[in-house]
Amino acid sequence: MRGLDSPLVVLTRPEGKNAPLAAVLQAKGLMVFDLPALQIHPAQPDPVGFSALENFDLVVFVSRIALTSYQWQQAQLLGASAMGGKGTAVLGQASARTPLQMSFEPTRSQGHRPKYLAAVGPSTAVALAQFNQGLSARILAPPQGASHDSEGLWQVLQPHLPEIQSALIVRGQAGRDWLGEQLVRAGVQVVRHASYARLPSAWTPEQVLQLAAMADRGQPTIWLLTSVHGVDAIFDQLRRHQLLKVMANARFVAIHDRIAQRLKSQITVCCGADAQPAVTLCATDNASMADALVAVAR
Prior knowledge:
By secondary structure, the protein is an alpha/beta fold. It has helices at 19-27, 64-82, 122-131, 150-157, 178-185, 205-217, 228-240, 257-271, 286-297, and strands at 8-11, 31-34, 38-42, 58-61, 116-119, 138-140, 166-172, 189-200, 221-225, 250-254, 279-281. The protein has nine helices and eleven strands. The strands form two sheets. It has a six-stranded mixed β-sheet with strand order 3-8-7-4-5-6. The chain has a five-stranded parallel β-sheet with strand order 2-1-9-10-11, sandwiched between helices. Helix 1 links the parallel strand 1 (8-11) and strand 2 (31-34). Helix 7 (228-240) runs parallel beside helix 8 (257-271).
């Protein structure tokens, strides 16, 4: 599939998350461009107002990075505590490990709370199984074949609402709050805890030059889109570098219809109301994303 007319797959997930998928695609003969749209950083933990799991009946982790970042925050606070309260919770000081490097060391809970740990996606549910070893909570997640989003998790949570008086949602510093709103309407006291922040990635001069060359020769591209924030960051950078024309010969794979809708909005702004991007939806696991990207490339 290699050549100037062959599509180039652009992987836009944060740094460190693209390599396994890239290897699969390259083994199938596809060319891959690693171009993270976002950087993910753990949020600075508040030693006074930190949301402890044992204070809630239900704890929802919206993603695997939300879980690992929460663990990173715990490690920061434990490091400061071990120093007699004189330590500082600064990235890379109290714990040298980043969220992507952390093992799933179980937290010890007092009493029988939380009763439930919940995950939106399957990879987060797998990570929670390890994290749950010291908690003995029941893990809730959308079943295979269901939609792996807030709506899918809400369907799973509803039968358990009589046992849930309080809930902690561990998430990014900004994001969709649909699930929290549903819980509040159901009479649950909800606390939102920011364990990480999303920041736009700064593309390197080499990456910008490669994009410009792709645009000049009209090379077809297939963009993997995995978040609404990522879509916005991509188009912001393309505008900044005057490279929107690279989208003239682009197709897309997105992991949720909300992402596809944001893409269409961005395309409308830059290319006009008549522009209709070709978007294929797929599940969130690497195998499904690889299958979708290969199918679109054919």
